[in-house]
Amino acid sequence: LTLYEQLGGQEAIQKVVERFYEKILSDDTINHFFKETDMKKQIRHQTLFLTWVTGGPNQYTGQSMSKAHEGLNLQEEHFNAVAGHLVSTLQEFGVTEQQIGLVVEKLLTMKEDVLRK
Ligand code: HEM
Question: How much is the ipTM here?
């Protein structure tokens, strides 16, 4: 079973993403990055994106990770904060540490593209 299937597919992933953004928007160290962001669109894109990285069907048609974060000047601490919110969200949803480890591994492969652009 893929993590996507274990979580319960697209609808479950969307709930994870909504909770994840609740956490991000209440974190004053990073929420300023999302001041101008259309959160409905962001949640839709992030849901498709997380679907893909957890082994579900690839329907993500958004920007590349380097393009999406261009000009934000994101630093390691911002990346770690976002990754931490994703981990704690997955924990809340009862995802095992082993599965969370796999998600974190995938996130880390995108770190260079996300930071300092
Ligand atoms: C946009 C994923 C890290 C802030 C996006 C989008 C995705 C995404 C899928 C949507 C792109 C689109 O709409 O075409 C990720 C992933 C990350 C990551 C996988 C880590 C591996 C971060 C971090 C921050 C951040 C660390 C800041 C703390 C933003 C902002 C946008 C964005 C501000 C643009 C929203 C807008 O268009 O207004 N990200 N992101 N992201 N992300 Fe990230």
Answer: 0.95
